[in-house]
Amino acid sequence: MRLSWILALILVLCSCSATSGATSGATFDDFVGPAGSPPNRDLWDYDLGDPHSGNHESQTYTSSPDNVRLDGEGHLLIQALKTGNGYTSGRLVTRGKVDMLYGKVSARIKMPSGQGIWPAFWMLGSDYANVGWPECGEIDLMELINSGTTYYVTLHGPQGKSDYSNHEGVRATGSIADLTNDFHVYWLDWQPDSITIGVDDTVLAVFGPASLPAGGRWVFNHPMYSALNVAVGGDGPGPPTDATPSPVTMVVDWFRYTP
After folding, report:
1. Dihedral sign for Cα atoms in the order 35, 31, 68, 146
2. SS3 assignment for the chain
3. Strands 194-199 and 202-207: what pairing?
4. Of 179, 171, 99, whose CA–CA distance to 139 is shortest?
């Protein structure tokens, strides 16, 4: 009877874990590999296709090494390329491979810039496929729009049937030394009911449930995954011009998660 009870308990715990979503242990990727090879498939997957309806962007995401590859020198390259029909680019995600809950998430990145260029390091709730956006929650650790001299750090979540990101309590933006001139460490310190975001040794924003507008709900106490991408055009930066460079490259030196 005792053994049967223990086995039953184990089955229940396993079932609960599968239902709630497993989270990952400490993870580090320094993107070591042959030039032209894909990033570690145990850690990264691709979002593919055309996201134009969301923010009216111009790029199509692919898994082609033209858009996403290792450079053979310990870096990940995510490139937006102009084509005859617009742009192709890359969006890498840790969804289903590194799903995180609390701790520190960070990456050392050299960001690109240019008219219409919109690089981002961000996180999305692992329950996105089940509950949709913004119910799943989104944390933007860093977005640069057109240039590297103004930063954008934002939380997105549900407020009624809309998104509360435009509320000043859940967005931080301001002038900063040009972040596209060199590598910088972008980081998130994430605890229950507490999100602190910074770059290098500087704290850029601190958020908690009290930051939300009336009617907003805190949806960040559950597993999330990371994303790295370079978008082109859309509601934020506006369209690229003839002066927009191609290719445009985000260079990632490393990615780390410490629970």
Report:
1. negative
2. CHHHHHHHHHHHHHHHHHHHCCCCCCEEECCCCCCCCCCCCCCCEECCECCHHHHCCCEEECCCCCCEEECCCCCEEEEEEEECCEEEECEEECCCCCCECCEEEEEEEECCCCCCEEEEEEEEECCHHHHCCCCCCEEEEEEECCCCCEEEEEEECEECCEEHHHCHHHEEEEECCCCCCCCEEEEEEEECCEEEEEECCEEEEEECHHHCCCCECCCCCCCEEEEEEEEECCCCCCCCCCCCCCCEEEEEEEEEEEC
3. antiparallel
4. 171
- Give pLDDT tens digits for 52-78: 667 889 999 999 999 999 999 999 999
| Nearest C-alpha neighbor of 184 from the set 252, 232, 247, 249 | 252
Q: What is the pLDDT of residue 52?
A: 60
* Inter-residue contact 38 to 51 (CB < 8 Å): no
Is 138 among the catalytic positions? yes
Sequence-separated (6 or more) residues with CB below 8 Å from residue 8? none
Which band of pLDDT confidence, cut at 50, 70 and 90, is reported for residue 7? very low
Class of domain 21-258 (CATH, top level): mainly beta
Q: Could you say which of 73, 135, 143, 168 is catalytic?
A: 143
pTM reported for the whole predicted model: 0.90
Tens digits of per-residue pLDDT, 184-223?
Answer: 999 999 999 999 999 999 999 999 999 999 999 999 999 9
Catalytic residue among 57, 73, 135, 138: 138
135 catalytically annotated: no
Confidence band for 85, pLDDT divided at 50, 70 and 90: confident
Look at residue 166 in the predicted model and tell me its pLDDT.
87
